[in-house]
Design goal:
By secondary structure, the chain is an alpha+beta fold. It has one domain: Sufe protein. Chain: A (Alpha-Beta Complex). It is 50% helix and 14% strand. It has a 4-stranded antiparallel beta sheet with strand order 1-2-3-4. Helix 2 crosses helix 4 and helix 4 runs parallel beside helix 7. The longest helix has 15 residues. It comes from Candidatus Enterovibrio altilux. InterPro entries: Cysteine_desulfurase_CsdE (IPR017763), Fe-S_metab-assoc_dom (IPR003808). Belongs to the SufE family. This is Cysteine desulfurase CsdA-CsdE, sulfur acceptor protein CsdE.
């Protein structure tokens, strides 16, 4: 596997930072804009990395996920061809980056998204795709 593209999630942009920014949003439209902005911080992948990564089934959009285990800690990269999905991937990356396998299995993703009140505002197909991404992470 090639070196994963660097991103700021889990280091410069943490899940706590995202939760604070989401709490400051006054409307769903503000949250939507924030999600899109966060997604723009995920670097685009080249075709080689996409070919070597895991395509996530269950998403209407194309989604790719890759990870590396370095000394028992997992580092991730993700990409999508859809802006909103790329933004949702950013939210996930902020939560999972640099965690151990046990930590990944015990993350309460549902609670994380409930606190941001996102699950009520995304389509059923995006919700299904999001759950598929989370299931892949938990199976690592």
């Amino acid at each position: 596997m090639h070196t994963l593209p660097a991103h700021p999630f889990g280091t410069d942009i943490t899940s706590n930072y995202i939760l604070k920014k989401m709490a400051a949003c006054r409307s769903w439209e503000d949250k939507y804009r924030l999600i899109i902005q966060l997604g723009k911080k995920i670097p685009p992948w080249n075709s080689t990395l996409k070919h070597e990564s895991i395509p996530i089934l269950g998403c209407e959009s194309k989604v790719w996920l890759a990870w590396q285990n370095i000394d028992g800690y997992y580092y991730f990269a993700a990409d999508s061809d859809a802006k909103i999905i790329k933004g949702l991937l950013a939210l996930i990356l902020a939560l999972i980056e640099g965690k151990t396998r046990d930590h990944l299995k015990n993350i309460n993703f549902e609670s994380y998204f409930e606190v941001m009140n996102l699950l009520n505002h995304i389509s059923q197909s995006r919700s299904t795709g999001l759950r598929s991404i989370i299931e892949h992470v938990k199976k690592i």
